[in-house]
Design a protein that fits this description.
alpha/beta, Malonyl-Coenzyme A Acyl Carrier Protein, domain 2, Alpha-Beta Plaits, 2 domains, five-stranded mixed beta sheet, four-stranded parallel beta sheet, 11 strands, globular
Amino acid sequence: MQEKLAYLFPAFVLKYTGKEYNLIVEKHQFDLDTRIADSGRLLGLDIEGFDIQENSFLDSELENQILSYIFSCSFSDILHSKGKEADLISGFSMGIYSALYHAGVIDFNTGLLLIRDVFSLVQKLLRNENFIMASVVGFTREEINDYIKSEESVEIVIQNGTYSYVISGKEKEVKTLMDIFQEEGAIYLSMFNLSSPYHAKVLRNNALEFEHLVRKYSFSDPIVPVLSMIDQAELRTAEQLRTEIVRNVSQPLNFSKSIQSMNEQGVKHFVEVGADTSLLKSSKFIDGDFDFKAISRGKWL
């Protein structure tokens, strides 16, 4: 079987490696500054002051998502220009928008507007309730579910590995559980600077509102299959990908199962296309016959 290549697009930046800007601007002469400025004007966001050395906007949820999208799409443009095409692609959480851009499903500005509109609708639906997402490493799914039974709003929303998960819920309930996980010997715990409970059941009853939002924009069939991180199906039509955007808001993801599924289909090489190395780190919890690189480390371009 021919060895296949997959590109994976991350959701948001936890910490820049510091190499991303030079790779895009200096090595490949891509005008990233103009793209950032134009994006900010379109969205009415003040992001022109971005400074990669200062890890700018990591504490600003929407701005972080937008900048993550800009970096991933800029790397995408460079990959296309170099003729480095993948056999399969997938987007992790909010990385679905840059994945769709790479696949030719949406144009660049549509991705920007979708990210903003989805974020705004989520915030509206929460009605000022404080939610949070957190990473928990060191317990099985069954063990985590046993702990969270007592907290009504909390659920597992992402599986990164057999012992690596992301939970979401009301801030007070999640923080209570984090104290318990700490006492019970968690290997690693971290709370994300996110108030939007993406992939959580709290948004499931509002699917029709998200569908109306998505239908405002033009979608095309993908030039390369897009693998769903929800159910590992290969998505090959514009309509399937519209539906995936809606599902992505309120359905749990399984990163480890998605990597294993692609690996079983012959994918031996994975490349994280974006700033940071969050997916590379998560891949270390997954068994399989593959190698994994992060474009932000300069290992692919």
